Amino acid sequence: MSDHRDGRPAGRPVGQSARVTLYSKPGCHLCDDARAVVERVCAELGERFEEHSILDDPELLERYREEIPVTLVDGRQHDFWRVDAQRLRAALTADPPHPTAR
User: Fold this and answer.
1) Spatial distance between the Cα atoms of 83 and 49, rounded to a whole number of angstroms
2) Is the per-residue pLDDT at 89 higher than 60?
């Protein structure tokens, strides 16, 4: 999949947010490991990810203080402490649930 000039993967509409979010903090070796896995899997699949330091937001710090790194896929918590590449890949390639499904 080729990239657009603005750096977003082809097929991803302008303005659509990244499917993967990584919450981390500076100096965290588990966060460094998680980032490497997230970067690799997202690159393989043509997905973008966002990373946010929990130190920049008191609510995130309170919520995730003991769980970082934390990954979210499509806004839902996916993993914490460790990121399994196979599990992340499966989540990103699975058909999303239909909005009216119960």
Assistant:
1) 14
2) yes
Residues in contact with 69: Cβ distance below 8 Å, sequence separation at least 6, in sequence order: 22, 23, 24, 28, 30, 31, 34, 35, 80, 81, 83
Question: Hey, what domains does the chain have and what are their CATH numbers?
Answer: 20-93 (3.40.30.10)
Do residues 10 and 2 make contact, with C-beta atoms less than 8 angstroms apart? yes
Rounded to 5 degrees, φ, ψ at 76 are -115, 140
Give 24-48 pLDDT, tens digit per residue. Answer: 999 999 999 999 999 999 999 999 9
What is the SS3 assignment for 64? helix
Tokens of 90: 């499966």
